[in-house]
What does this fold into?
Amino acid sequence: MLMYGASGHAKVICEILEAQGRTLYGLIDDNPQVTSLLDYSVYNTLQQAEVVPDDEFIISIGSNRIRKIVAHKLSGVKFTTAIHPAAVVSPRCSIGQGTVVMANVTVNVHSHIGNHVILNTNCSIDHDCLVEDYVHISPNVALSGNVQVGEGTQIGIGASVMQNIRIGKWVMVGAGAVIIRDVPDYAVVVGNPGRIIKMNEPA
Ligand SMILES: CC(=O)SCCNC(=O)CCNC(=O)[C@H](O)C(C)(C)COP(=O)(O)OP(=O)(O)OC[C@H]1O[C@@H](n2cnc3c(N)ncnc32)[C@H](O)[C@@H]1OP(=O)(O)O
It folds into this structure.
């Protein structure tokens, strides 16, 4: 399999694949100055990497907007998931293609996780949550039961979200925020209790 994007985030995914015992042939990155990452070769184009139709991919780019652009650019390739063996994922939940689940993550019963999502180290997704495509749930985030997170939103490191909350699309929840009421699309929310400080540009 191959990864697209050779960054710090990519290094973590390399180690998830190693922990799963999978073979990573290399990475692709647009920056021609990057030629290796950890022990892996970095290529600049799909042609250079000699990609064949059966190769599986993960987009290893932390930016939600760029991950979405690259996913559209790569439409037609086969995406896979990377789930760390130390994650606890309910057999009654679903995890979309291209999604990475890092060490010590918990995903509880009847939660649904979209495509190209990042569930970062030690986050907790409780029962009946819906996490849409291109979301990033940062390390140590806690989503209570029945929380919805819209496309492209990032929940910042250490934030907590109370039960039954709806968070819109392309929202940024700041580090350590405590979300006690619904959040509209594109809002940037910080603090405890979370308050809107500005709005993101629509994609
Ligand atoms: C493995 C990994 O590394 S995963 C990555 C994890 N990283 C994160 O989760 C980062 C989360 N990002 C943040 O919290 C950012 O501060 C953001 C996105 C909320 C805001 O960033 P910016 O848009 O650059 O805002 P800026 O830094 O100018 O701050 C604006 C105001 O909000 C305040 N503010 C910013 N972040 C926070 C926060 N997390 N909590 C409380 N207040 C905050 C600032 O103090 C500032 O207040 P002031 O106007 O009174 O001075």
Notes: The chain has two domains: 2-79, 82-197. Residues 2-79 form a domain with the Rossmann fold fold (CATH 3.40.50.20). The chain has a mean pLDDT of 97.
